[in-house]
Amino acid sequence: MNTLVVSMPPHLKTKRTTKHIMLDVVIALLPATVMGCVLFGLSALLTIAISVVAAVLSEYVYALLSHRVWKDHAYAKRFWKEFDFTSVVTGLLLALVIPASVPWYYPLLGSIFAIVVVKMLFGGTGKNIVNPAIAGRIFLFIGLAAVPSCRAAIIGTVFSAAPEVGNDIFTGATPLTNFLNPDFGASITQSNLTDLFFGFGVAGCIGETCKAALLLGYIYLVVRKVIKFWQPLLYIGVTGLFAVCLNGFDFSAFLPSILSGGLFLGAIFMATDYVTSPKSDLGNVIYYVALGLITAGLRKATGIEVVSFAIMLMNIIVPLIDTYVPRRAFGYRRQRKEVK
Amino acid sequence: MKAIQSKFVFHGVHIPDRKHFAKDVPVEDCAPADTLTVSLSQGIGKPSVPVVAVGDPVKQGQLIAKAGGAIGSAVHAPVSGTVKSVTDCAIVIENDKKYETAYMQPLSDPTPEQIKARIADAGIVGMGGAGFPTAVKLNPQDPVDTLVVNGAECEPYLTCDHRIMLEHTAEIAEGARLIAKSLGIATIFIGIEANKPDCIAAFEAFDFIQPVILKKQYPVGSEKHLIYACTGRKVPTGKLPAAVGCIVQNVATCLAVFEAVRSGKPLIERVLTVAGKAVKTPKNLRVRIGTPLDAVISACTLTEDAKKIICGGPMTGAALKELSRTVTKTTGGIVAMTADETDTDAPTPCLNCGKCADVCPMNLMPMNTAFYTAAGEYDMAAKKGGVLNCIECGACAYICPAHRPLIQAIRTAKAEIRKGGNK
To answer: How many whole angstroms separate alpha carbon A176 and alpha carbon A188?
Structure first.
């Protein structure tokens, strides 16, 4: 019996599949995860664990229910064999953008919402319109905003930046919130900036405080060619420069505005999400510049951290960018319009 | 002339070239088969029209089928013997093992018209893979001033062009000069990929041909991109290379032209590579047109674990279910791959990562083509995906992390658009 396989060319294919790329993203997130656990302790680890497990399990359960194969072991086996780690990335990212002090059921609810509503109901991997982790965070932020402790935990009020061990919401206000407070602006010093960069003594979400760890992840992603090096830089740079403009061309505002809040995490790991970013290079330039402008502008206008809102907003606009930004073929020449 | 480095860049993909199989194996002759089935469609164009009947004795190099139309090529007997059968698609010749030749008169100092006529008489087609009749190419619509010889051989595994460039350097250079003479061209470039430094050095010996070192990148051997890499001219979309004053010929074609003009030998054999992990002794073989593929492969011994056998290169060639085909003028190689070399995994959902667009040498949007083709909207596939400009190099499908069948979608869209009247 002839066992030759027949298919369309090309017969060579890259070994880097979706699974490898997603594993690379998980690896790139590890420094930030570890630093989050170091800075915020056991509760951070617990939040991360709950979030990741909830994300993976909700994808699994959704797949079982939607295929009506509750007791089919063959299907379960195939599911785990084809498991592409996108839900691990979603769960991990979600945990990194919520504070460690939240109750245990926050990451659980957020993960389930992100996976089931934002990803699976839209058609699974590659079909979601907005980034699931961002949507999960915003769901927690808006959906649970009525709970006072949550509101304080996630967006923060004007709050002392010094962590107090034993306080339930010690990861309260991000330095951004403080920075936007007029009293705080004057107190930015060199040592503040170093703390902001390494995340020591800075309040905020689990993954976003240590910029050094995030930069390590950025370098890894660029080296592994998961993202293009200029994409996060463009976002961060435009945000910083526009913040400078909005603050009356005061260049001392540049570093604090890019180092505070979730900008690094959002720019490196969330805005660059393949599914919800434009396909062409020109489209990407528009996308990242718009992200930067929206982030800096809304921060100035609202006084709260808006990176996640900016990204979600631009995610929704991405199909428009893809539709209206043309790509010229190699050798394209503009057709002269015939004179009538 | 001293080789120059190409400084023009375009999108492309880096593919492990895996040319180690037969890179250092000299070309050897493949034993002629007992019966040869010569296809009447040797490349693009109308099938050739047989001029022999069943039972006729033929000599090696004798015309057995003439060009079937304006775009078509003549076919010659690869061996001496008797015609066993003549059908609409093939002529079968029984080999009498005498190898009596009936070649044309060698031309020592031909005029341009004589060269063109000889190339048509010898049935030469583009031997890089497309098989466009060379004689038709030599009557361009627009004036041409540059000949680009294609020695890129960017397909992985294949080394036949590499070997002939080393073993027949002078013949190829002379063949290129003959083609240039037939069109009154002064400038000759030869583009060679940087992974063949020995070939580049060999062509530096000639003062009328300019070697260009091409960056190792797939698909630098594509006609439009080779012209761009060598001359910096971009062929406009939907136009032929002559629109920018260029003409491209493969090195194997140049060799065939040399043989046809200088020794009167028509195109009856070609060099091809047999390589891949499922081949015990990879070789470069000089094979007569019409030799069955299984005879070629058995000369190199196929192992048991062959998973895919490909006629042509692994990026653009066709996978074979059985080895009943025969060698044609455009067969550049036979690649037998084991399961770990090729990929038979099922595709996973598209991530919209845009890697296919990043590597597309034509700057198209393959993911849009696939998307609209799946929806049956072929007009949109042309508008948003630019499928009509696609050269089907396969770079997009190579890089796709989800292993989407992009070439399949592209070919479907092209076929459907043609069916509905090419708008």
So the answer is: 11
Q: What residues in B contact A5, CB-CB < 8 Å?
A: 307-308, 319, 342, 344
Asked if the interface predicted TM-score (ipTM) of this complex is over 0.95, the answer is: no
Q: Does B133 touch chain A (CB under 8 A)?
A: no
Q: Spell out the domains of chain B, with CATH numbers in brackets.
A: 33-95 (2.40.50.100), 108-262 (3.40.50.11540), 269-338 (3.10.20.600), 355-419 (no CATH)
Distance, CA of B345 to CA of B368 (rounded, Å): 22
User: From residue B360, how far is each of B292, B342, B364, B367, B396 by CA, in Å?
Assistant: 35, 21, 6, 11, 6
User: What residue of B is the nearest CA neighbor of A274?
Assistant: B353
Nearest to B354 among A16, A279, A331 (CB): A279
Does residue A185 surpass a pLDDT of 70?
no
Looking at residue B200, its pLDDT comes to 94
Q: By the 8 A CB rule, do B41 and B91 touch? A: no
Task: Please state the separation of Cα A300 from the chain's center in Å.
Answer: 21
> Is the model's pLDDT at A56 over the cut of 90?
yes
Q: What is the pLDDT of residues B159-192, one digit of tens each?
A: 999 999 999 999 999 999 999 999 999 899 999 9
Mean pLDDT confidence for A98-118: 90
Rounded Cα distance between B179 and B174, Å, is 9
pLDDT over 50 at B336, yes or no: yes
CB contact under 8 A, A12 and B403: no
Average pLDDT in chain A: 82
> Which chain A residues are closer than 8 Å to B398 by Cβ?
10, 12-14
User: Which chain A residue is nearest to residue B354, measuring alpha carbons?
Assistant: A279
Q: What is the pTM of this model?
A: 0.88
Q: Please write the tens of the pLDDT for every residue from B319-333.
A: 988 888 899 999 889
* Mean of per-residue pLDDT scores for chain B: 91
pLDDT digits (tens, 9 = 90+) for B226-238: 999 999 999 998 8
Residues B334 and B318: their CA atoms lie apart, in Å, by 10
CA separation (Å) from A272 to A201, A233, B360? 28, 11, 21
Give the separation between CA B94 and CA B84, rounded to whole angstroms. 6
User: Measured between CB atoms, does B380 come within 8 Å of chain A?
Assistant: no
Out of 1.10.600, 2.160.20, 1.20.58, 1.10.3430, the CATH code matching A19-323 is 1.10.3430
Partners of residue B234 in chain A, C-beta under 8 Å: 330-331
Domain ranges of chain A: 19-323
How far lies B135's CA from each of A158, B112, B120, in Å?
81, 12, 5
Pick from A11, A13, A281: which is nearest to B310 by CB? A11
3-state secondary structure of A206: coil
